[in-house]
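Ticket #4471: structure output looks truncated?

Reporter: J.K.
Steps to reproduce: submitted the chain below (375 residues) through the standard prediction queue, then opened the result file.
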Amino acid sequence: MGSYADLWKKIKSDPVLYIAWILALISAFFVRPDKGYLDYIDFRSLGILWGLMVIIQGLKENSVFEKIGQLLMGRASKAWQLSAALIFMCFIGSMLITNDVALITFVPFGMLVLKSCRREDLMIPVIVFQTIAANLGSMATPVGNPQNLYLYGITQMSIGEFVLCMLPFTAAAALMLVLCIFLLPGKNKDIVINSEYGIVKEFGSRRQIVIYTVLFVIAILSVLRVIPWYVMAAVVLVMVAGMDYKILLRADYMLLLTFIGFFIFTGNMARIDSVKEFFNSVTSGKEFTVAVIASQFISNVPATLLLSGFTSNYKELLIGVNAGGLGTLIASMASLISFKFYSATYKERQKAYIVYFTVANLAFLAVFVLLHLFI
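Returned output as attached by the reporter:
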């Protein structure tokens, strides 16, 4: 009974999931279920996303990312160096392990380090910039976040095209983050990290780390269309089940179900001529603007799934949903991860966090909008 209760608790805590399925069910009254429903679902994106989730969970279970972070921390002697390391671990890490996993891994790590060296005054700005860094670093690669993986798949874009499309925005994000680091209070103060703070002392199983690394390479080859996605998924399933089947249960199945719900809804909407014409008229030529605005209210992953069925200008949509992750606390659902970690420890400072987060995000978003106008 406990497992069912836990599952129901997860579903209730994920409003985007049940909104997706409520919309899917409502749309089914207008377009009755038929064989065409299967065509809505992008099994390739779902399969690759599932594989990456499992592989990254396996690496995380073996303390790979925490240990790398701990090794980097040993080189910091000034507050700005510490802040830069914590922020850019999220920026660079999110390009490979997704924005969600980067934040789940490095935000608690950063909180512990800042507390250890008695720089809790930097807690809000560093966590906020870690969050921005993860959301913006992830836009640089197809595997950085779910919307990128999906759009990379349906557009048949080459990896070179994808990277070049997002490069100006990635470079601008990196420069802005550097500027923000040098505006932090007390940036030049010496810091001493207590050696006893230890997140992790050693890596996990070296054998498992090697296997998960090989699986990660296979997954990337699948993303790049070198290996069929179903071959990658089968290899991951067999190998991980043989090592530790519990890792298979730690993939974000709620996200995968959310994708399926939105696939059904948008697929049905595209089959209703009047609805299709309306969305086409609203979106056409305004993909960036509509994507940014929609993301502020429903977050950028659902916005991607909703709008992708009504435009062929996928590059503008890609830029828009990634930029749209900036702004409100729900513009990117990954941002809620950082907020939950912070508010669990500093409940009395939640308002200060939200104000700082909103101002910083809007400033970054304003720069991105201006950059978009001139590119």
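Triage note (M.O.): checked the attachment and the full token line is present. The mean pLDDT is 91.
Status: closed, working as intended.
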